[in-house]
Amino acid sequence: MKTSNVLLFILLLHYINASTEWPTHTVCKEDNLEIYYKSCDPQQDFTFSIDHCPDIATQTFNIRAAMVLKHSIKELHVKLNMIINGKTVLTYSDTICGPGHSTSNFCGMKKGGNL
Fold this sequence. Notes:
With 115 residues, the protein is of the alpha+beta class. It has one helix and six strands, in the order H-E-E-E-E-E-E.
């Protein structure tokens, strides 16, 4: 019995660590607005929040992002899609950090730092 429990536990841990699904997070969910994001690195997730989410269409709002680096930043890309009623209406893609594109102050930050 104990051997089967240990085997089941090991298989469960292997399944959790082998997952490559990008986590989806909800920033806000209101009657007329839903904002979600996915981290493109399942091993290094980040936090993203917006102040006053219901008022996003009518007021200036603050966006915050944070993470503890598990890897040094050598390359960083952003890709945004605005989807309304299931249809993509806006797509934005850019290289923030990389060879010849290191314009942000966090490019080159080392493992263990806070962003």
